[in-house]
Amino acid sequence: MDLAELRVRAACGGIATCGACTIQTIKGEFSSPTLAEWQKIPAVDRDNGVRLACQLYLKSDAEVFLQDPAPTSNWKSLDLNDWSDYNTPQLDLNSAIYAIAVDLGTTHIRLSFWDRKQQKRIASRHGNNPQVALGEDVLTRLDVHRQRGEDLQSLSQIVRDAIIQGIRDILARDIGEIKSILEKVGLVSIVGNTAMLALLSGQDGSQLYDPDNWEGHIPCIPEDIEAWKNAWRMPNAEIAIQAPIAGFIGSDILAGILAINMTQQTEPVLFADFGTNTEIALWDGKQIWLTSVPGGPAFEGVGLQNGLSADAGAIRSVKKKDDHFILDVIGTDTPKGFCASGFVDAIALLRLDEEIKLSGRFANPNPEGFYLDKGNPCTIIKSKDIDAFQRAKAATAAAMQQLLALADISMLDLSELWVCGAFGQHLNLHNAQLTGLLPSMDCSRIKLFGNSALSGCEKMLLVPDSKEINQQLRNKIQVINLSHYPDYDDCFINHLRLIPFVGDK
Amino acid sequence: MFETYIKDYNEAVFDIDKETALEVVESALQQGITPEQVVFNIIIPSIEQMMALIEKDPDTNLAQHFMTAQIAAGITETMLTKFSTPPEVIGRVIIGTAYGDLHSLGKRIVIGCLKSMMVDVVDLGVNVKAEDFVDAAVEQDAQVIAISSMMVHTATGEDGSLRVRALLNERNLENQIKLVVGGAPYRFDHELYTKAGADNWAADGVTAAKIISQLILEVKAS
Question: Which of B63, B102, B127 is closest, CB to CB, to A359?
């Protein structure tokens, strides 16, 4: 239930010691009450079907009533159930056994809390980056910040506060202790895009405006690290901001590369992390060709008329039956808008119906936009949304084509294409290929991996020689700035049509 | 006779269908239309019509802008090599994006329009230093420097067009070399070009090409 909007109250992490997570069963078949439930729940409540949510298993579709939910929170658990173990060696630790992985994104923050001694993830959370209130993209935020003439620390403080709130949410609900656990945190590893990490470390982001820094290394070393540790009540923690690779290539991509074991592959591998900036990495067996292109906010949902991130109310996939659309909505029946994967489905289906032409324009003039559900204005797709999507997908496809050309690798030679970031697990590959978002290669070679950066960041917590491994990885990276390649513009324009991306010209 | 070709060509460009647009040109050539006629009687009228059409159409998309300019420039360049006598170029412009700005696509549209309107273009690329603009204009005998900026801080920053203006002034080149600017910030504030030290600005590719042609003629006449 922690994945949903409504959360039960909790303070022990689901081991039936706090008794806070009471919930009333109304209809359906459930597991029998456990001993703990007999002890914690008064008889009168028990007779009314009251149970502890942490002990309750469903045996059928069921109806439950949550009379007293936990206060609404920015933070929800991540669904990481299908992640396999990392099989990292046992760490020799006696104190400061806890560690925290943080993926700091432009729109979202993801984090997980680990017991390193037991090599066990205690819990994970994702929430919004509160800076979104200042602007959707990084440069807008910096501009707003400059124009307001605010204290340089404030953007940094907003994010630091948000991260520690997410951590405290885990401690309060999944462990039940806060202060004593914070004291035993030995490592916080933070990956993210360059601008976010620069701001987090207390810089004003002005280096990002300087062209000399775009391909260079931007150190993100906070000057106030002791004060920061104090503010977070983590006296024994090393707070490690994993340095970005270049101006527009963050350390989130480094984590993603680590997560998929890219450099251990013998065959060429292509990796794309879709988002406000889309980073693309190509492993040719010896080195990693790495670049970044603007995705625009189209892939994060937020730039579209009815765009949402992949949270409750977002249409995550669309199918067509007879002449109406079937919308799969996250967590509810009433759609509030599209997340990126649902939007791709919609575009592909409208293309198949010839409602949208190859040029991206509506076949019939449609100033109101196209309603997938006649009665719901939240299901409208506007022509400017399609335009934004076309530019984002063309930038990605052109970047993939340029990297393949530079490394002299054919698309046919790719053993794997990893699709990470904004699309999560729900991207329909066939529809993505139909619109030209993903190259037309055998779908069995395409892997979806939603939280790759967090996974890589977790590995950094658990591997003893993590710093050396990171450095070795960095040494294999060749950063490519596509604005130095005149062919890129032509390539971009050629990819604007909504046609499959066959590559290898 | 040209009307049919213009119509077919425009329809293809409108649908950002490059292959069909090229086929229209190819079939025109096969019907005995000369490369000169392709440029002057099909491409140039068509690009003006297209831009006017796109500007008026609320449903227009950026893909159409890019494609219009890209196809026109590509065809013009091919046709120029086939002209019976070397093409008469009206003048030369040095173009690039402002220092600190990597956004190249707006510039791309302007280059497409300039080339199809017989202006010789020297493209210095992106993130161009003010000194490089001025040096190139002097070395290559250009009448105009055109600078594209997509962000407010590169449009009005002191390393951008303002610095070019200062250099033109210092070197006493202001009568020989004119300075024009374009890009998103200028569309929001129509007087911004004066703050950027420019002689003029334009909101779209065709207007830019016309304004630049006009300035070239003024410089040549003086």
Answer: B63
A387 and B61 in contact by Cβ < 8 A?
yes
Map out the domains of chain A with their CATH numbers: 1-72 (3.10.20.30), 98-241 (3.30.420.480), 261-505 (no CATH)
DSSP-assigned letter for residue A76: B
Give the pLDDT mean for A348-375: 91
Q: Which pLDDT value is given to residue A135? A: 67
Strand partners, A114: A99, A121
In this structure, the answer to whether residues B41 and B123 fall within a common structural domain is no
Mutation choice for B interface testing from A248, A249, A359, A364 by most B CBs within 10 A? A359
Nearest CA in chain B to A483: B102
As a whole number of angstroms, the distance between CA A500 and CA B41 comes to: 34
pLDDT tens across B32-64, in order? Answer: 999 999 988 888 888 888 777 777 776 777 778
Q: What's the pLDDT tens digit per position in A269-291?
A: 999 999 878 899 999 999 999 99
Q: From residue A288, how far is each of A229, A245, A386, A446 by CA, in Å? A: 35, 12, 32, 19
Distance CA A288, CA A270 (A): 9
Structure tokens that stand for A127 in this block: 């929430």
What is the overall mean pLDDT for chain A?
A: 87
- Classified as helix, coil or strand, A39 is helix
ipTM confidence: 0.76
Higher pLDDT, A1 or A268: A268
Which tokens sit at B48? 């003006």
User: Residue type at A280?
Assistant: I
B139, B172: one domain:
yes
Domain boundary among B80, B112, B134: B80
Are residues B113 and B153 part of one domain? yes
Q: Which residue of A has its CA nearest to B105?
A: A489
Instruction: Give the rounded percent of residues in chain A with a pLDDT score beyond 90.
Output: 50
Does the beta-carbon distance from A359 to B125 stay under 8 Å? no
Cβ atoms < 10 Å from Cβ of A18: 17
Among B52, B80, B108, residue at a domain's last position: B80
